[in-house]
Amino acid sequence: MSDKPSRGRIPALVLALLLVSASLVPSAADAAVQELSDTTVLGAVEDELIVDPAIVLNNIDVAVNRGVVSLSGSVDNVLAKERATRIAETVKGVRSVVNRIEVEPVLLRSDTEIERDVQDALLDNAATEAFEVRVSVLDGEVTLRGTVESWREKQLAGTVAKGVRGVKGLENNIDVVPVPDRPDEEILADVQNALRWDALVDHAMIEAAVEDGLVVLSGVVGSAAEKRRAMLDAHVGGVVSVEASDLEVRYWAREEKLRKDKYAAVSDREVREAVEDALLYDPRVVSLAVTTRVDDGMVTLRGTVSNLKAKRAAERDAVNTVGVTGVRNRLKVRPEEPVGDERLERRAAAAVTRDPYLETHEITVNVSGGTARLYGSVDSFFEKARAEDAVSAVEGVRIVDNKVTVDYDRDYPPYDPYVDEQYLSGLDWYRPEPLYPAKGDAEIEEAVRNELWWSPFVDAEEVDVSVDEGTAVLTGKVDSWPEYTAAARNAYEAGAVWVDNDLRVERAK
User: Fold this and answer.
1) DSSP letter string over 102-129?
2) What is the mean pLDDT of residues 47-65?
């Protein structure tokens, strides 16, 4: 990536206007930062896109104006278009993203075929099969109508629809009818709680207000990705909509002293309650059947869920909770009703066939005793993970034995909690193998340090880096598992062939 810019001073007036509390205003030395230049941000965004396994940078143009990134060009599916936005949002200095990328599917399909597949996808997905959703398609543009009980259910239905090959765009007209009605004071308390306990959001300078179910967020966050995450957190039960135009992105907001009490000492009881709340609002997880135990920050999940994706989603929810030092996932996958292997095999195979990332590959699915075995070949580990994710969402699939081979890609995609929908690090086969380094150790070490500095999610000053024969060793401490994961991702993206991540996830005492 580009070299780090020199630091200047934020005007006192800006700090006075943006900081939520006067007690949080940093000293002049602490505030010695300035906005990054558009040229450096442009290079950083392109660097992130070029290493992503799902994006072809040659087909995308990037422009930056005062921290606002504009994307244009083409991709072959809607999910890839949205992924490009999320990737750009993770770059330090990006205030917002305008996405004008066109979707040009590899294979043109009729509206009738697309409509049928979207309907089947919603029915075959264990989390959306009970939703009251109607589907119509015109020139590849999908429109969803109906009613659900939460914004997150609406978004999930949209994500499932966009994951069908041939879809060029989505108009999500599903109505959210919260049940039951909740007073604004109760909603506000839940929003504040969600922001407080989400390890992917620094809540110290975020203000929330609620009126008639409308949540308004204002203040400052450290990245565009963090802003998106804060808006997601704000969609708790009873919320009609969320407005965040006054929630500004300033990369200096990640400074350690501005985190207030984010990682203050917390009890196991508080952590358990926070994890249970996270599970409650995740439509992929039937949280009433999940019990949570926390011992010195180590979370143990027990109970039953109806599909493998729900099990993995529950683990991810726990990992992203403040105060969690590790997760033992003891959840059992048990469908609510028995599903025969033959029927399960058809549904799992159809889920893979529908996926737009996999439409040029031939993958075979065999199911026996609820275990789905995947065979075939793909071009990247990302595509291998997509195949497994598609099958894991089918109710009745207990285990996925992923025997798909990767023909060309030698690099495992680093997991990014702000970008990836699937928790890659939890996959059985996700074991990167060391490669021969393409750079010298000193060059890799400098590149890793530069990547860490550019990340809006890692406190680079708390991470020590050394490199030996291409292996990056990370030591020091971080405040959460997402920060731990982000540091490893940065090291791989910098050219390390292997990462020994010895960072400690520490709870405040």
Assistant:
1) EE--SS---HHHHHHHHHHHHHHBTTTT
2) 91
**Is a pLDDT exceeding 80 seen at residue 75?**
yes
The residue assigned the tokens 């990134």 is 69
CATH class as words, domain 268-328: alpha beta
Each residue of 400-410: b (16+ CB within 10 Å) or e? bebebebeeee
Query: What span, in angstroms and rounded, lies between the C-alpha atoms of 179 and 239?
Result: 10
pLDDT given at position 17: 35
pLDDT digit string, tens, across residues 191-214: 999 999 999 998 889 999 999 999
Q: Which helix (H) or strand (E) holds 170?
A: strand 169-176
pLDDT of residue 3: 42
Query: What's domain 35-103's architecture?
Result: 2-Layer Sandwich (3.30)
Gap between the Cα atoms of 399 and 367, Å rounded: 10
**pTM recorded for the entire structure:** 0.82
CA distance 216 to 184: 12
Cβ neighbours for 378, distance < 8 A, ≥ 6 positions apart: 358, 361, 363, 384, 387, 404, 405, 406, 407
What top-level class would CATH report for the domain 441-505?
alpha beta
Q: What single letter denotes the amino acid at residue 183?
A: P
Looking at this protein, which amino acid is placed at residue 48?
E
Q: Which CATH class is domain 341-425?
A: alpha beta
Beta strand pairing status for 132-138 and 504-505? unpaired
Mean pLDDT over 147-166 rounds to 94
Angle separating helix axes 308-319 and 381-392, nearest 10 degrees:
110
Distance separating alpha carbons of residues 309 and 191, to the nearest angstrom = 26
Q: Is residue 359 exposed (0-12), middle (13-18) or buried (19+ Cβ within 10 Å)?
A: middle
Residues 413/492, Cβ–Cβ less than 8 Å? no
Q: What is residue 34's predicted lDDT score, i.e. its pLDDT?
A: 45
Q: Which of 458, 481, 498 is nearest to 198 (CA)?
A: 481
The count of other CB atoms within 10 Å of the CB of residue 496 is 29
Nearby residues of 45 by Cβ (< 8 Å), 6 or more positions away: 62, 64, 69, 87, 88, 91, 94
Pick the closest to residue 140 from 158, 113, 160 (CA basis): 113
Where in the chain is CATH 3.30.1340.30? 35-103, 111-176, 341-425
Backbone angles phi, psi at 61, to 5 degrees: -110, 140
Q: Under CATH, what is the fold of the domain 111-176?
A: Histidine-containing Protein; Chain: A; (3.30.1340)
pLDDT 10s digits, 291-332: 999 999 999 999 999 889 999 999 999 999 999 988 999 999
- Written as six digits, the tokens of 7 are 């630091």
